[in-house]
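Per your request, structure below.
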């Protein structure tokens, strides 16, 4: 087949999994950010693909070096701001770059508590999920920023049900008036405006909305009639708290925990009492929804 019979309709290239640890020192007090960065560039012609002409190619190693150099020159305040800094740099520095994309994940480090006090320079990894963001910017256009939260595993042992769903010849699942509800939260959201936005506070507010809507008050909790309803209520809460969010998607897989059938051991005279469960995640239900703010019509 001749090269004239086909055309490249999209292309990009870049560096994945660039790991960066940035330490900001305020005297004895240190702050850390550990990131994993992906960069992708799209050039203004396709000769690198069609003719093997590398004259405009900004090597993926150069892209990797840029991550470290900009971190040294500007620091890392939030992943969204650092991602925007990277896309702007690639477009400003290289006039033949048409589009820059950056994806960043931030490792969940927190300060070690020592004798009731937060440690100045010692940290422990792990916590309430992983924040991520993607930034895409085209030449002569503003950046499009998406923030997100993933790997946030939550569970509650009551105040969850799934009843009155469709009955037909294929159904064997009984109504569940009270069940263990366990899931791994994946959420991402777009901003209608980022002017004056504190990205750090915004994402913490979203995470709090997710946890509050899932758990409810500490003493009584909150009832969930379905995963679908929990997703929608979470989205309503998040958009109410962060007015700059224009669109939000949430995905919640069911991490099932089935009560183990102790009736199989009659000689032991054991009774099921909602205490012993067998967790399983495959197969699992997977529920997703995306919401947007309604645009008010103007007459």
């Amino acid at each position: 087949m001749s090269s004239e019979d086909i055309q490249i309709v999209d292309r990009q290239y870049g560096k994945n999994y660039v790991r960066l640890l940035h330490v900001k020192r305020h005297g004895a007090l240190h702050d850390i950010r550990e990131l994993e960065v992906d960069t992708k560039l799209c050039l203004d012609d396709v000769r690198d693909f069609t003719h093997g002409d590398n004259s405009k190619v900004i090597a993926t190693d150069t892209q990797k070096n840029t991550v470290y150099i900009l971190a040294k020159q500007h620091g890392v305040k939030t992943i969204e701001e650092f991602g925007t800094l990277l896309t702007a740099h690639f477009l400003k520095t290289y006039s033949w770059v048409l589009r820059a994309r950056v994806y960043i994940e931030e490792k969940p480090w927190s300060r070690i508590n020592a004798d009731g006090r937060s440690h100045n320079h010692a940290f422990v990894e792990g916590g309430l999920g992983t924040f991520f963001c993607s930034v895409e910017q085209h030449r002569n256009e503003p950046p499009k920023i998406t923030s997100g939260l993933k790997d946030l595993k939550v569970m509650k042992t009551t105040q969850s049900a799934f009843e009155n769903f469709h009955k037909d010849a294929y159904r064997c699942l009984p109504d569940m008036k009270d069940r263990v509800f366990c899931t791994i939260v994946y959420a991402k959201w777009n901003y209608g405006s980022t002017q004056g936005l504190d990205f750090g506070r915004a994402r913490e507010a979203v995470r709090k909305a997710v946890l509050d809507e899932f758990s409810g008050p500490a003493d009584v909790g909150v009832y969930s009639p379905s995963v679908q309803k929990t997703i929608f209520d979470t989205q309503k809460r998040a958009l109410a708290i962060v007015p700059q969010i224009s669109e939000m998607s949430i995905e919640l897989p069911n991490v099932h925990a089935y009560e183990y059938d102790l009736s199989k051991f009659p000689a032991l005279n054991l009774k099921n009492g909602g205490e012993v469960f067998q967790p399983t995640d495959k197969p699992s239900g997977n529920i997703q929804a995306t919401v947007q703010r309604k645009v008010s019509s103007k007459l």
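The two ends are 56 Å apart (CA to CA).

Regards,
D.
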